[in-house]
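Q: Sequence in, structure out?
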Amino acid sequence: MDWRGDTNNGVVIGPTFCSGSLYAADVGWISLGSRAPTNGVQYQNLAANDYGVNVDDLGNLRGYAWGANIGWIAFEANGAPAVDFASGRLSGCAWGANVGWISLSNSVAYVQTTPLTPANDLCAGAVALTNGLAFIQSTLTATTPGDLAPGCQTNFGKGVWFTYTPFLNGIVTLSTCGSDFDTVLGVYKGSCDGFTQVACADDNGPSCSGTRASVAFSGTAGVTYRILAGGYSSDSGTLSIVATSPSNDQCAGAVPLADGVPYVMNTTGATATGDSPPACQGNFGKGVWFTYTAPASGDVIASTCGSSFDTVLAVYAGACGALAPVACDDDNGPGCPGYQASVRFSTSAGATYYLLAGGYNSASGTLNLAASLVPVLGVAQSAGQLTVTWSGSGTLQSATNLTQPVTWTDVANGGGFWTEPATNPAKFFRVIK
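A: Exactly. Output:
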């Protein structure tokens, strides 16, 4: 049989297998077996030794399936590909903007185009947000039933639910700045069966201007807040939502930095509690704490380049309560000019340092902090092999000449080594962060 979608490309079903490609507007689940998921299609006349496919732990279709050893796979709305199979098994891809059901057996081909709603379409399926980490999802198939109309905007729909639990008392900032549609936010306390609204935002909030909603509210440590994010006039699209609160407002909650990986957070809710004014700038406030452990010995550059406010940065050795200053900068440091602070200091492999980043005159906003071991290139030749080593993170690049314009080619990522035959043409190497 031949199942055909909106674009007249379907899946050809043979006596014991199907092959080909699926390109249709309504794509979702492929189910094989005598039973489908709860709201799927029931199968009939599937013999015990008909060919099917199994589903591995990664959600991929794998191999043959016999009898009850049969499952299903979900395709994402933006079109996650199916795995390829050898002769006599399923092959092809699924691409589609919407979601539906596609059911296959040795004698039946059927499609039901009921859209699949997001798992967090209702309060009971709320997704827990991680402090400072943006959660991105499509709300195109979200529904309006079960959505409370936030007090600040009753023309609301296609909402999805989240939860957030602050680590410490302080200001919690929620933002949807990276979304591609007109968003509305509602924040609530209580269970799914009984809410009290805490905050609400439509346009021009503290973190983003225009039609992307953002809101700041006073959060209590350990209390779980429920968040409803949706669209003005049921607008929908790609939602990007992030919750930040000063969990690292004090030294004991310092956030570990990964070498070369920027950490971005909003410091609006930070306080001066536990912050000793750095030696280089006494007019300091709203500091937040981090730790950095060097992967190797050498020099480290820590910088707040790209932050949205006038920053101050201090580095300490020791432990909370017994810290010794190592480095400090207010303006025009080695990493970036102007009012974004940066420092350079020497470290030993495995040593942990504490970093305090805050604002001149208690300024606050979006902090962008990164600490990176300054790479040191080593080159050696042995047994006809050229070996390039470098410490810390970064991308090793090579070029055949240094005449402008220079063309640099990526060779390897991360810290480590690279080998190639010594007979290769001469090259120049560098490491970039």
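The first strand starts at residue 2 and ends at 4.
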